[in-house]
UniProtKB/TrEMBL annotation:
Name of the molecule in the record: Disulfide-bond oxidoreductase YfcG
Keyword Magnesium: no
EC number(s) per entry: 1.8.4.-
Keywords: Oxidoreductase, Plasmid
Source organism phylogeny: Bacteria, Pseudomonadati, Pseudomonadota, Alphaproteobacteria, Rhodobacterales
């Protein structure tokens, strides 16, 4: 039995999309990160890094969203592209994992959540996030999907982050700069599986308040003593 530990953040939503697209039977398990549930001993036994998502498949435990997508793709044989696309699929998956996600996350952190907003940090992460998204945009100019004419886990990985792009980069008109990405996002949003993934929010209630408890849970470094 698959159990999916999630909230509605970009990385868990990639996996939710795959689960709904594939038709796999699974149990969604909400973890409220604003209540520090990810720091419990029970959860950290699954993921020592205390991050979402996590997926268990009977005795197998997988954490990191891109690792989960690769695992599920290999398990089901779905959304993995063609055999001759294997190298490109892995390359783009790790590009999202090592570049798009981290730089987008740091961009939104320094713009919206950091107690101090050093101009250099704000500029650096905004620049790098936009640079990475431009690479995605240029790739999508070459075909309907990230793997050309094949819908794959790479598109799901992009979709997870792309849905928050306006907020992350502080630009309501950002999709005008990335018309091919906008096309991709609208195509995936129109899929029934995407609607079902988004509807997970209706099954479990997550804390909405971004108070000190939430800040301590999500950004403990803010309250940690300075290193000696």
């Amino acid at each position: 039995m698959i159990r999916f530990f999630y909230n509605m953040a970009p990385n868990p939503m990639k996996v939710a999309l795959f689960l709904e697209e594939s038709g796999l039977d699974y149990e969604p398990v909400p973890i409220d990160t604003r209540k520090a549930e990810q720091h419990s001993d029970t959860f950290k036994a699954l993921n020592p890094n205390a991050k979402l998502p996590v997926l268990t498949d009977d005795e197998t435990v997988i954490f990191d969203s891109n690792a989960i997508l690769l695992y599920l793709g290999e398990k089901t044989g779905q959304f993995m592209g063609t055999p001759d696309q294997r190298g490109q699929l892995l390359s783009w998956m790790l590009f999202v994992a090592s570049g798009v996600g981290p730089f987008s996350g740091q961009a939104v952190h320094f713009r919206n959540f950091a107690p101090e907003k050093p101009p250099y940090a704000v500029k650096r992460y905004d620049f790098e996030a936009r640079r990475h998204w431009q690479i995605v945009e240029d790739r999508l100019a070459q075909g309907e999907w990230m793997m050309g004419d094949t819908y794959s886990i790479v598109d799901m990985a992009v979709w997870g982050w792309g849905s928050r792009l306006s907020y992350m980069l502080g630009d309501d008109n950002i999709m005008q700069k990335y018309p091919n990405l906008d096309r991709l996002m609208k195509a995936i949003d129109a899929r029934p599986a995407a609607a079902r993934a988004q509807a997970l929010k209706d099954h479990h209630e997550f804390k909405a308040e971004f108070d000190e408890v939430a800040m301590r849970s999500l950004y403990p470094q803010i309250f940690a003593p300075d290193p000696v």
